Amino acid sequence: MKNPDFSKLARKNVRDLEPYQAKNIRCSVKLDANESPYAFVPPKKVMDKVARTALNRYPDPEAGKLKAAIARKIGVDTDALLVGNGSDELIYYLIISFGGPVLYPVPTFSMYGIIAQALGQRHKGIPLDRDFDLDVDKMADYIKKFKPKLIFLSSPNNPTGNCFSSDRILRIIDMADGIVVLDEAYQPFSSKKGFLPMLKDYKHLAILRTLSKIGLASLRVGYLAADNELLREVDKVRLPFNLNGLSQAVAEEALRGSSLHNLIKTVIAERKRLYEELLNIHGVRPYPSEANFILFKVHDADAVCKKLLGHGVLVRNMNTASKGALRVTVGTHEENGLFLRALKKTMGGK
Ligand SMILES: *Cc1c(COP(=O)(O)O)cnc(C)c1O
Fold it and tell me: Is 87 in the pocket of ligand 1 (CB under 6 A)?
């Protein structure tokens, strides 16, 4: 039998990658992946409709009904929308379509860099300033010199939780020759309005949204709102039936109802409590958040992360992205209580 060294067979840029760490780690309180703690339970009417989905047929390749529901919800035309198997897939498609250089601030959502690397495209992360805001001068230097085709800005930013200041985002949009993708995965949790209304003013602005953080992570539904001609290029590389029929049917109905909205309000209220409680724990520095998670810093993040898991609580270790940082997702009232108790014990040295 032949015994090839597959790592040598892989393209060089793939060889240098590590698989994305999305493993199932056993825990009783899961607060590591920014999911909603509340499952959206589809009403019977929806399940009946899903049950009628013809599983022998390919799904609607254009996801027409889902697009119509999204368009109604956010107030854009259906031809200004493209849906993806999660917004991750749309990031992939954007980079396949337009290529690099790809520019983004760091720390931020890691997939911009990972996907650019996987596709062999030049990519650059520019450190955020001390307040976790955009360092516009440094980004401007890079933009002038390398003319990035794509600039990704996650606002609210994952993992820092803050929105970048609007005037800095606008300055980046104004100076960019390529496309600025504003990733608004966490916008529903933010007090800021977001940039959808700006789409009509900027042809090179694209906005990414997802249903993953507001209760439907399992469906894998994300969407890109942008100029129709921009989307036309992205649509050329889209796989024909990228969003399955069951997800299309459930997402369409979920967007029609109001239950997603109510659950978001509960998460925002719990975020406030969690932040205030974290402020009171000695040796813990939480950062204000406009998202469904809170970044906090401790002296020894690796040790604290491990001890929390010993208490059954899983948070995300962000130590390599930002020294001393851990990221906790806002859970249910009870889950947050368990997390806080475990953290107090950990920080008290017990
Ligand atoms: C979670 C996340 C995504 C990915 O969302 P999916 O729609 O589940 O692929 C995209 N951007 C940011 C900033 C995220 O945190």
Answer: yes
Question: Phi then psi for 289, rounded to 5 degrees?
Answer: -130, 140
> Domain ranges in the chain?
6-38+259-346, 59-254
CA angle 258, 224, 125 (to 5 degrees): 120
Residue nearest to atom 11 of ligand 1 (CA): 185
The per-residue pLDDT for range 44-61, each reduced to its tens digit, is 888 888 888 888 999 999
Q: Which atom of ligand 1 is nearest to the CA of 109?
A: 13
Cα–Cα distance for residue pair 66/41, rounded to 1 Å: 18
- As a whole number, the mean pLDDT across the chain is 95
DSSP run (H or E) holding 295: strand 293-297
Nearest-CA residue for atom 14 of ligand 1: 185
The residue-averaged pLDDT of 246-275 equals 91
Report the run of H or E that residue 204 belongs to, with start and end: none
315-325 tens-digit pLDDT: 999 999 999 99
Type of residue numbered 258: S
Map tokens 């950990």 to a residue: 346
Give the CATH number of domain 59-254.
Answer: 3.40.640.10
pLDDT score of 350 more than 50: no
Check pocket membership of 252 for ligand 1, CB cut-off 6 A. Answer: no
Q: In this predicted structure, what is the pLDDT of residue 181?
A: 98
Q: Looking at domain 6-38+259-346, which of 3.90.1150.10, 3.40.50.150, 1.10.10.10, 3.40.50.300 is its CATH number?
A: 3.90.1150.10
Q: Measured from the CB, is residue 117 less than 6 Å from ligand 1?
A: no
Q: What spatial distance separates the first Cα and last Cα of the chain, rounded to whole Å?
A: 55
Longest dimension (CA), the chain: 62
pTM higher than the cut 0.70 = yes
At residue 172, what are phi and psi to the nearest 5 degrees? Answer: -65, -45
**Cβ atoms of residues 222 and 88 within 8 Å:** yes
Q: In the numeric block, which tokens belong to residue 317?
A: 């270790």
What would the mean pLDDT of 24-30 be, rounded to a whole number?
A: 90
Amino acid at 51: A
